Amino acid sequence: MHTSQRDRRSGPRVPLELVVTVRRGNDLATGCTADLSDGGIGLTTDAELDDGSQVALTWRLRNREYQSMAIVRHHLGRAASLEFVDLPPEAAAAIAGVIDQRLMSWA
To answer: Could you tell me the residue ranges of all domains in the chain?
Structure first.
């Protein structure tokens, strides 16, 4: 049986727009998130991305800058789904806080 990417997600995805810097090797580009989860982001960017490639991300959340590596799980045109790799604990806590806040505001 095939497991869809949605079924493999560890937690909920919430809509959130953040400006993200994407670095692949020496190439830098900016992008904007469409959504965020504890496991990754949906992103729109002009960066040249290939499925399976690893990129470095930098973004600001709650007035603080965070960095993480991510793997491109899927891309189509300018849209991409990225999975965080070794997300730093402080970034994970900030993301969890934003997700909890969004989910509680919907209840």
So the answer is: 5-106
In sequence order, what are the beta bridge partners of 62? none
Q: What is the CATH number of domain 5-106?
A: 2.40.10.220
How confident is the model over 47-62, as pLDDT tens digits?
Answer: 999 999 999 999 999 8
Nearest one of 101, 83, 30 to 60, comparing CA atoms: 30
Cβ partners under 8 Å of residue 84, min gap 6: 39, 40, 41, 68, 69, 70
SS (H, E, C) 15-69: ECCCEEEEEECCEEEEEEEEEECCCEEEEEECCCCCCCCEEEEEEEECCEEEEEE
Could you read off the pLDDT of 82-94 as tens digits, one per residue?
Answer: 999 999 999 999 9
pTM summary value: 0.87
Residues 17, 98: Cα–Cα separation, whole Å: 12
Q: What letter does residue 83 receive in the DSSP assignment?
A: E
pLDDT above 50: residue 70: yes
